[in-house]
From TrEMBL, chain A:
This is Methylated-DNA--protein-cysteine methyltransferase. The keyword Flavoprotein does not apply. Residues 133-212 form the Methylated-DNA-[protein]-cysteine S-methyltransferase DNA binding domain. Its EC number is 2.1.1.63. It comes from Streptomyces marispadix. This enzyme catalyzes only one turnover and therefore is not strictly catalytic. According to one definition, an enzyme is a biocatalyst that acts repeatedly and over many reaction cycles. Keywords: Cytoplasm, DNA damage, DNA repair, Methyltransferase, Transferase. Residues 51-126 form the Methylguanine DNA methyltransferase ribonuclease-like domain. It catalyses: a 4-O-methyl-thymidine in DNA + L-cysteinyl-[protein] = a thymidine in DNA + S-methyl-L-cysteinyl-[protein]; a 6-O-methyl-2'-deoxyguanosine in DNA + L-cysteinyl-[protein] = S-methyl-L-cysteinyl-[protein] + a 2'-deoxyguanosine in DNA. PROSITE patterns: MGMT (PS00374). It comes from the Bacteria.
From TrEMBL, chain B:
It holds the Pfam family Sigma70_r4_2. Belongs to the sigma-70 factor family. ECF subfamily. Residues 10-75 form the RNA polymerase sigma-70 region domain. The keyword Nucleus does not apply. PANTHER family: RNA POLYMERASE ECF-TYPE SIGMA FACTO, RNA POLYMERASE SIGMA FACTOR HI_1459-RELATED. It comes from Streptomyces marispadix. The keyword Transmembrane helix does not apply. This is RNA polymerase sigma factor.
Length: 213, 180
């Protein structure tokens, strides 16, 4: 065990001085307790800019994230939860903590939806991750009722720009709040499901659940 | 360079900061010190440069909190530490598990009270240098920037501290090494 003259860090093995052998490196119960305490204090002091948790569903694990304004992001496993969190840190705030309490309502409603007991969501939403025409398109999606579908062309027309079919496709593909804002109800004119941020199978699962497939 | 979600900072450095707090302020106050450190870090985090040394930054905050706590402590007329319930190991092994005083009967399963007794006996400067170098892994130059003084002085403080710890813990450290 050597320490260089400059004292620069030269690897973890140097750090483990035998006198500290009794001091645990990991103390999981303490870490959990402290994490919970930090989340509580952050919420109290208005420092919990982004709270998140994951939820297991029939379409895989969903990442749910909320600001103080409301639900800001729903991300599928295939969209990479870590990437979604990094994106939130960059675009909303790096004060991001795993804090399930703020997502309680969203979790309950999404669970009810997957149990077939809910046909629309009543949640505060924070739409800041989408702008302009995309945001307009996304915001109109709940008007496509549960169990119904519309074509990309129909949605473009409803948004006041019949030629913007591709832009509607992009808006749906980049929907920051899939499931809750039902971009899965937008399908191809020929009736086939078309692409989906959560993968084609997830889209079919949701449409089947709603009895629309 | 953008900052990572703070959750990752807690996950990566939380255990290290807890060890440092336990070594510097002791078992009873360590969790308060950790909580104050991470809450202050969360508050300041958005302003941290993307290429900053997060580890040194956290230890710097923890150091300030420890200094504040020591000052507050010295103003307290009678310091009566809370004595938490003895943990399973302390109960199983009986009073002999601690080194004698009641203060050692805190969650005895976490780490041995003898280590804190030995650390507490060190001058504050040595205790800090030992913890920041051997637990946080900071270079002496970095430690000097945090505690004041020169890198050489920090190196000497750490070396003297380790020497005292080894002699006061004696063979215990070796016997107990296998527990980790």
């Amino acid at each position: 065990m050597t320490v260089s003259a400059s004292g620069s860090a030269s690897g973890p093995q140097r750090r483990e001085e035998p006198v500290f052998a009794a001091l645990p490196v990991e103390d999981t119960p303490a870490q959990l307790r402290l994490h919970e305490r930090l989340v509580g204090a952050a919420e109290r002091d208005g420092l919990l800019d982004v709270a998140y948790r994951t939820l297991e569903t029939p379409v895989g694990s969903l990442l749910l994230a909320a600001t103080e304004e409301g639900l800001v992001r729903v991300a599928y496993d295939v969209q990479d939860h870590d990437a979604a969190l990094a994106d939130l840190a960059g675009r909303v705030s790096p004060r991001v903590l795993r804090a399930p309490a703020r997502l309680e309502q969203a979790v309950r409603q999404i669970e009810e939806y997957f149990e077939g007991r809910r046909t629309s969501f009543e949640l505060a939403l924070d739409m800041r991750l989408t702008k302009g025409f995309r945001r307009e398109v996304i915001a109109r999606l709940p008007s496509i009722g549960y169990g119904r579908t519309e074509s990309y062309a129909q949605v473009a027309e409803a948004a006041g720009n019949p030629r913007a079919v591709r832009a509607v496709g992009t808006a749906c593909a980049t929907n920051p709040l899939p499931v809750v804002l039902p971009c899965h109800r937008v399908v191809r004119s020929d009736g086939s499901a078309g692409g989906y941020a959560g993968g084609a199978e997830a889209k079919r699962t949701l449409l089947a659940l709603e009895g629309a497939a | 360079m953008t900052l990572r979600p703070f959750e990752q900072v807690v996950a990566e450095y939380g255990p290290m900061v807890l060890r440092v707090c336990r070594a510097v302020v002791g078992p009873v106050d360590a969790e308060d010190a950790w909580s104050e450190t991470f809450l202050a870090a969360l508050r300041a985090y958005p302003g941290l440069p993307g290429d900053a040394d997060v580890e040194a930054w956290l230890v710097t905050i923890a150091h300030r909190k420890a200094v504040d706590a020591a000052r507050a402590d010295s103003r307290r007329p009678i310091a009566v530490p809370e004595v938490p319930e003895p943990g399973p190991r302390a109960l199983a092994e009986g009073p002999a598990a601690g080194s004698g005083s009641d203060g050692d009967l805190w969650n005895g399963q976490l780490w041995d009270g003898e280590l804190w007794q030995a650390l507490k006996a060190l001058p504050q400067r040595q205790r800090a240098a030992v913890a920041y170098h051997h637990l946080a892994g900071l270079p002496y130059k970095e430690i000097a920037a945090i505690t004041g003084g020169t890198a050489d002085a920090a190196r000497r403080a750490a070396a003297d501290g380790i020497k005292s710890l080894r002699s006061s813990l004696g063979t215990h450290a070796e016997e107990k090494g296998e527990k980790r």
